[in-house]
Specification:
The complex is a heterodimer of chains A (about 700) and B (about 625). Chain A has about 700 residues and is of the alpha+beta class. Chain A contains 16 helices and 35 strands. In chain A, the strands form seven sheets. An eight-stranded mixed β-sheet of chain A has the order 5-4-8-2-1-11-14-13. An eight-stranded mixed β-sheet of chain A has the order 24-25-23-22-29-33-32-31. In chain A, strands 9, 10, 12, 15 and 16 form a five-stranded mixed β-sheet that branches. Chain B is built from eleven helices and 37 strands. In chain B, helix 6 runs antiparallel to helix 8 and helix 7 packs across helix 8. Classes of the chains: A alpha+beta (about 700), B alpha+beta (about 625). Chains A and B meet through helix 3, helix 14 and strand 26 of A and helix 11 of B.
């Protein structure tokens, strides 16, 4: 007994002494390059890699979790041994920089076998919190072997979730040998699995009863070199893991993770039952819905669906957009506004809060619902879910037409949910009496089609009498998921905040300031900020238009017409006015050539290398782009070249159709491009290229304006 | 919360008055691209003897009133310093003179070009919440050695409405003040002599903010400023020379060279290897010079004296990295071992407007090696990768060099080379097949265009080199299909580099009824050189000379009904011409661009605008063939 205690004390002190950098270095060096280093004599690379920029002989990662009293020590170790085959890789590895708390070792192995270890202490320089090293004597043909070890020690009395790790095995360069190791002990719960053909994790027997060690080894891994429209974790060999620390059962319950039953088991699968067990205690109706009841007073709705949607929009404002101005004011250091909301303002920041509050409303309104648990397509199917933070939660509400919606964004609607989870396999948690989760069933989520996600752009063109200028008026309307990117880019916070203030009669936050003089001052400063933001945004829209058409513009005006925040079919619409000078129109004797195709703006161009793609295609979501171009035909001129503007390409993956006609002195061209699916197997790639190429070719077409 | 209350009380008197707002609006009308203006700036420079009496210390003070002329502004106010200087005061006050509580940050200044240096920066991030808001800025900096106090620029990143600079030169200090670029500015100078101090006062009004355009010449060419040259000082009756003449500048530089510990023995084996089995001296020299270019990476440590004293040759050799000084010294030592007369040489690149008639540290920024051979001088610059022996990079052409010559020194000049040395010669042969232009392209690169091609190509990853070449040629344009790419030896930096390939170019030819319209010019050089809004000189990377010939075979059954108009432009700085002619069954399109000075001067910008418009108009014209 006495011996043991002494040993523990010594050990504890030992840890304290190890904060001495020199000892840290010795230990690290022995750990990576010592007697157990199986890779220290490997200097040759396979013939097939001779034309690469560099080859990783070994890529090694180690994660170590230990506890001492109230502290947790988390050590990450990393090592690479790389043969450098060209100037580019030598330049990349000539300079290292890392944080002050890392222990680093670097050595060079010359082609003749000579090993040169870099004297880190002598060669490193420090700049604020960074250490930098310029590596001496590095040449093409050398091998560079380096390691880095970082130890974090912190106190955690109850529970702590380490950040999950989800990585493909591959790297920038091909890897000959890959090894992942990790060590844990009691109270550390591990979820770990490998996918898409990656080798499985093995448990390595070790002497200490309360400790566990695991290992993953792989050989001959191709470099990561994938094209656009691809989800690497879905197809490439990869691993995912998460470690969670929980001192006892009570804290295990609170963990935001799908914990294994015991720390002695590595959890590699999260079953339907696990999902049920995790969520059935998390969701229960809670919250004071008086504010909703006040909102609903005196209002009547034709259907329950309409009522639920209106409540959604109202709560999106009440618990979210109502606070946006305050955040902006605080960040600009105008004043601290949050006290103006009184004691304990409710602002939803988490999914669970949102679900539980809605459950309260639905229960009181006697409307049936399910809670849906699923995961984004980029993570693989729900049966493979391992990391709890990858889950996505929706409510399915049994109104006349069932509606699905999730947590708010400033633009979200209750009749459409995240495209990443459309059509996925999911679990529906059944709720007994709308009060308690009591069952779980497998379902498939619905989704949108190319008819829901639509962009309609009408570009009206007028040519100046001298044919130097093209005067453009462009109106865009976006529906469904097509709205989302542009809403983030073009709708500014004051557009939607003011819209909601008006709709719900909310007092803007600065009006809540009681002191008249201060209120005036804050308002002045806030107005100045908004004016500045408007100027900056207009400059940005101008340069975006310039990039779109590849020309410089003198002026550009964008008028926001509708923010599109009330339903998937409520369009985001805006109008642009600008003039293109001395570009896109060319003189040819007495005639002119107009690059009319450029007005459907730039199209995806798949050139040679991409056409040879071997990966499956993960498009974002099915969608349609409809471009209408209307050109006022200049007096005294006729138009030639319409045949090339009337084409149709259609197949099972998508289509590009275009028609052109002249009527009432206007040339009207309507071009429509459709992507039918969000996924295509590689076998269909050539079919996709067919309609993509047709659209690209159209963008290159010209018409002749022939003088009569 | 307590802070909040205090700042609310202080709110009175820190807001702009009606007059302030009016001032802001007026200034903004004139300077509509600036958010902040400096209403008044007062600078004061004074001198004192250093503690060890070996040099003179400088105390530099500045007080500024900053005003927001836009709706709102968020800026950084900063000041640099290093191991030779110290910032004693750095603060910001409200207009009522009460201190602000913005945090003062003090960090290493991380430069993209230098791996490590001792420059640091003190800065404040501040916001001006409304138009007309003002702050008072105060800064005091002590420079420990007067030789590092070189210039005072009158301009700032913000427009300056009124500025006053006083320099108080005590009679024990001999200081010369040289004035530059005063020409178009409203500058008044007064000199008063009182109580043993000669005070120079410069008063300036309405200084334009620094240009934010790219491709600018260095600031010493553009902005009004003064150079302070400390020639000598007298201490206890004894006159101590500082930089009285170029000889003194050289003397200090030489002392740094002499304090090195070069060990040439470490280089012996490599030099032997590089000079064995060579046919002549030129080959020996090239082998050494090119070895330094190819094997020493540019990594610069410029902390303290390392900014001026080269690293020992054996260090640079062993580390396989160094800066310009390290490479110049290594080149010298290796050439000497091979039996040649090689010297280190100081030089100011074309970024600097001065020459060695001024003894100041601001005159140079670079070091090269001079080889004396057969009565000629050759300048070798290890930082110019793929530079051919006997050719000189644009940035050193025409610049004075200071060459070591024992106790003496030699001032000479790097010759200026004609733009034709950098010729890009292109010959294209097309015919029309199915509305595509099909044919072969032959390109030749010389001088700087060859060197930059070789540098970029050799630094691309091995497995991406073919892609890189295609990207270089066609920027991944789907219309431009390339095959059968051939190059001459890409490791030879002396010979003209040749590149040839077959091409199939789509969407340049359009057929309508009986006519074919051809856009024969795919590359349209300089079409994007739109300098409409530019105010200052535009510097090209080097003097370019493009010589392009396109031969287009006229398809059978067609004749040429319209050719674009010829264009011939000649100016002092550049010439260009575009000529079309029909010869037999071919259309020959010849283009030449000669930027013979490598610059479009500000005075020539109006003319460039007109010429550029003519160029664009010409590019927009089509060739028309009729059946």
């Amino acid at each position: 007994m006495k011996m043991k205690l002494k040993f523990t004390l010594l050990f504890l002190f030992g840890i304290l002494f190890i904060s001495n950098a020199q000892d840290k270095n010795k230990i690290a060096k022995e750990f990576f390059w010592g007697a157990n280093d199986a890779y220290k004599n490997i200097t040759t690379i396979p013939e097939k890699y001779k034309n690469e920029s560099a080859v990783e002989i070994i890529k090694y990662e180690n994660y170590d979790y230990h506890k001492f009293g109230k502290s947790i020590t988390y050590t990450t170790s990393f090592r690479k041994r790389i043969k450098l085959l060209d100037q580019a890789s030598v330049t990349d590895y000539s300079e290292f920089s890392y944080g002050k708390n890392a222990t680093v070792g670097i050595k060079i192995i010359k082609p003749d076998g000579k090993e040169i270890e870099i004297d880190i202490k002598k060669e490193a320089v420090e700049q604020d919190n960074q250490i930098k090293i310029a590596v001496s004597n590095l040449e093409i043909g050398d091998i560079i072997d380096y390691y880095s070890q970082v130890s974090d020690m912190f106190t955690s009395t109850y529970e702590y979730g380490f950040d999950p790790v989800e990585k493909t095995l591959g790297s920038t360069y091909p890897i000959m040998n890959y090894k992942l190791e990790f060590q844990t002990e009691n109270d550390f719960f591990v979820n770990f699995n490998t996918y898409n053909g990656a080798p499985k994790l093995k448990e390595i027997p070790i002497k200490k009863g309360n400790e566990r060690k695991y290992e993953l080894e792989a050989k001959d891994i191709e470099k990561n070199d994938f094209p656009r429209w691809f989800l690497p974790l879905v197809e490439l060999p990869c691993y995912k893991f998460q470690v969670f620390f929980a001192r006892s059962g009570k804290f295990e319950e609170r963990a935001e993770a799908f914990l294994p039953e015991s720390e002695k088991i590595v959890k590699s699968v999260v079953s339907k039952k696990d999902v049920f067990d995790f969520y059935n205690s998390k969701f229960k109706p809670s919250g004071d819905i008086n504010v909703i009841e006040t909102f609903l007073k005196g209002k009547s709705f034709k259907t329950t669906e309409e009522k639920v949607k209106e409540v959604y929009y109202f709560t999106r404002h009440q618990f979210y957009t109502r606070y946006v101005e305050a955040f902006v004011i605080d960040e600009a250091k105008i004043m601290y506004p949050f006290d103006l909301y009184g004691y304990n303002p409710i602002f939803f920041t988490k999914e669970q809060q949102f679900i539980n509050y809605f459950m309260q409303f639905l229960r009181k309104s006697k409307i049936d619902f399910d809670i849906i648990v699923t995961t984004g397509r980029e993570n693989g199917p729900i049966k493979d879910i391992l990391i709890e933070s990858n889950s996505r939660i929706l409510l399915k509400i049994y109104t006349e037409n069932p509606i699905y919606f999730g947590f708010f964004t400033p633009y979200s609607s209750p009749d459409i949910f995240m495209s990443e989870i459309e059509f996925t396999d999911a679990y529906a948690l059944k709720v007994e009496n709308n009060k308690k989760v009591d069952d779980i069933v497998e379902i498939k989520l619905p989704g949108t089609t190319y008819k829901d996600n639509v962009t309609k752009v009408t570009t009206n063109l007028k040519l100046s009498p001298d044919f130097n200028d093209i005067i453009i008026n462009k109106t865009s309307s976006l529906y469904g998921h097509n709205k989302e990117f542009e809403q983030e880019a073009k709708v500014l916070f004051y557009d939607y905040v003011n819209e909601d203030y008006e709709k719900y009669g909310t007092t803007p936050v600065l009006d809540l300031v009681s002191n008249k003089k201060k209120k005036e001052q804050y308002k002045k400063e806030f107005d100045a900020l908004i004016k500045k933001i408007k100027v900056t945004k207009n400059e940005r829209f101008k340069s975006e238009a310039e990039n779109e058409y590849g020309v410089k513009l003198d002026k550009h005006e964008l008028i926001m017409k509708n923010t599109g925040r009330f339903g998937k079919n409520d369009p985001l619409s805006f109008e642009e006015n600008f003039t293109i000078t001395n570009s896109l129109i060319k003189k040819a004797g007495p005639n002119y050539i107009l690059e009319i195709g450029k007005f459907i703006t730039s199209q995806v161009d798949i050139e040679e290398k991409e056409a040879a793609r071997t990966n499956n295609i993960y498009s974002v979501f099915p969608r349609t782009y409809e471009y209408t171009i209307v050109l006022d035909v200049p007096q005294g001129y006729t138009i030639s070249g319409l045949e090339k503007l009337n084409t149709t390409i259609e197949n099972e993956t998508g289509s590009f159709k275009t028609t052109a006609e002249i009527k009432n002195n206007k040339l009207t061209i309507v071009s429509t491009k459709c992507y039918y699916h969000y996924f295509e197997p590689n076998a269909n790639w050539k079919k996709m290229i067919a309609f993509l190429d047709a659209a690209y070719q159209f963008s290159q077409e010209k018409i002749l304006l022939k003088k009569n | 919360m307590l802070c909040l209350t205090t700042s609310i009380i202080a709110q009175k008197n820190i807001d702009p008055t009606e007059a302030d707002i009016k001032t802001a609006k007026t200034i903004r009308e004139k300077h509509n691209k600036s958010d902040v203006a400096i209403l008044k700036s007062i600078e004061n420079v004074s001198f004192s003897s250093s503690k060890n009496h070996n040099t003179v210390e400088v105390l530099y003070k500045i007080n500024e009133t900053l005003m927001n002329i836009n709706h709102r502004a968020d800026i950084q106010k900063y000041e640099f310093y290093d191991s030779e200087s110290e910032i004693k005061t750095f603060n910001l006050k409200y207009r009522n003179n009460k201190a602000t509580n913005f945090r003062v940050n003090d960090e290493f200044y991380k430069s993209n070009d230098l791996f490590y240096n001792d420059a640091r920066v003190k800065y404040i991030e501040l916001d001006f919440p409304v138009q007309g808001y003002t702050y008072e800025y105060e800064m005091e900096k002590r420079i420990k050695d007067i030789k590092y106090f070189t210039s005072i620029y009158f301009n700032d990143e913000f427009p300056v409405i009124e500025k006053e600079i006083t320099i108080e030169v005590p009679n024990w200090l001999e200081l010369e003040i040289k004035e530059f670029n005063f020409g178009q500015n409203d500058i008044k100078k007064t000199i008063t002599d009182k109580d043993g101090i000669k005070t120079y006062k410069y008063s300036i009004k309405n200084i334009e903010p620094s240009a934010k355009e790219g491709n600018l010449p260095g600031p010493s060419y553009l902005y009004p400023h003064i150079l302070c040259i400390a020639k000598s000082f007298t201490e206890k009756g004894e006159k101590k020379i500082l930089f009285n003449s170029t000889a003194d500048l050289y003397s200090w530089y030489k002392s740094l060279i002499d304090s090195m510990n070069n060990d040439p023995a470490a280089l012996q084996t490599k030099v032997k290897e590089l000079t064995a089995s060579t046919k002549n001296d030129e080959e020996k020299i090239k082998n050494i010079y090119y070895w330094v270019q190819d094997n020493i990476r540019y990594i610069a440590f410029e902390d303290g004296i390392a900014g001026f004293k080269p690293d020992d040759a054996q260090n640079v050799f062993q580390k396989r990295y160094g800066d310009c000084k390290g490479m110049a010294n290594l080149t010298k030592q290796m050439l000497k071992l091979a039996g040649f007369d090689a010297r280190v040489t100081w030089i100011g690149t074309n970024h600097i407007a001065y020459d060695y008639s001024i003894p100041s540290l601001s005159v140079d920024n670079h070091m090269i090696c001079t080889l004396f051979k057969d009565g000629k001088k050759y300048f070798l610059d290890g930082t110019e990768k793929y530079n051919s022996f006997g050719e000189y990079a644009e940035r050193i052409q025409g610049k004075e060099v200071l060459i070591e010559d024992g106790a003496k020194f030699i001032v000479d000049k790097v010759p200026v080379i004609d733009s034709k040395a950098n010729t890009d010669k292109i010959v294209i042969n097309y015919k029309i097949e199915n509305d595509n232009l099909v044919g072969t392209i032959n390109k030749e690169f010389s001088g700087e265009s060859r060197a930059s091609f070789l540098y970029n190509y050799n630094n691309v990853k091995n497995d991406k080199k073919e892609d890189a070449l295609k990207w270089f040629i066609a920027s991944n344009d789907k219309n431009y299909a390339i095959s059968n790419i051939k190059t001459s030896d890409i490791n030879n930096r002396d010979k003209t580099l040749e590149l040839s390939y077959d091409v199939n170019l789509a969407n340049q030819v359009s057929s309508f009824d009986n006519e074919i319209y051809i856009d024969i010019d795919y590359d349209k050089e300089y079409q994007h050189l739109n300098l409409k809004e530019r105010k200052k000189d535009f510097m090209l990377s080097y003097k370019t000379f493009d010589d392009i010939t396109v031969n287009l075979e006229i398809p059978e059954g067609y004749k040429v009904s319209k050719l674009p108009t010829n264009l011939d432009v000649k100016t002092t700085d550049y010439d260009f011409s575009l000529k079309y002619e029909v010869k037999g069954n071919k259309i020959i399109y010849k283009k030449q661009f000669n930027f013979k000075k490598g610059i479009i001067k500000a005075s020539g910008l109006e003319e460039w605008k007109k010429n550029h418009e003519s160029l664009l108009k010409n590019y927009a014209e089509q060739i028309v063939l009729t059946k």
